[in-house]
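Hi P.,

Sorry for the delay on this. The queue was packed all week, but I finally got your sequence through. Input first:
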Amino acid sequence: MTREPKRPAASPDQEIRSFLAKYTPEIARFGREARARMRKLVPGGVEFVYDNYNGLVFGYGPTERPSEAVLSLLLVPRWVTLCFLKGAAMPDPKKLLKGSGNVVRSIRLRAATDLDSPDIRQLLGRAVVMASPPFPGTSRFHTIIKSVSAKQRPRRPA
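Then the structure:
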C-alpha cells in the first residue's frame, strides 16, 4: 500500500485568499481593503482569522491569546462590520457604536474608507489604548488561522 505524500500546509495568506474567494468580488475587495487599513491602524500584535459558521472574522489583539483581542472585522455576504470587543466600556460621544450587549459594540462599514474617518479612528485609538496587555507598538503583525468551520452559511447573498 502506498501513501500519498503530504501536501505542504498553505500559508496564512493563501488560506485567507481562499476564504475571501467565497464572497462576491465586491465584498472580497471590501474585506481586503478594510483588513489592509486595520493592519496600518493597529500597532502590531496578532491578527486572528476565523472562517466561522456565520462569516469571516479578522481579530486584532496584543498577544496570541484571543481573549485579549479588542477589535475585529466581520465579513458577511452583504457587508463588513467593525467590532469593538470591549466597546460597551468605551466612551462614544458621537453614538457611532451599535449594540446592546454587555461587552461588544459595532459599526457597520459602508466602505473600507470609513476606517479613515476621524471619529472611527478616535474609537480605534481608544480600543487600542484600553488593551491589556498593551499592543507592542510595532507595525508588524503575526497572523494565526484559528479555526475554519466545516459547516458554513452561504458567503454570497441568496
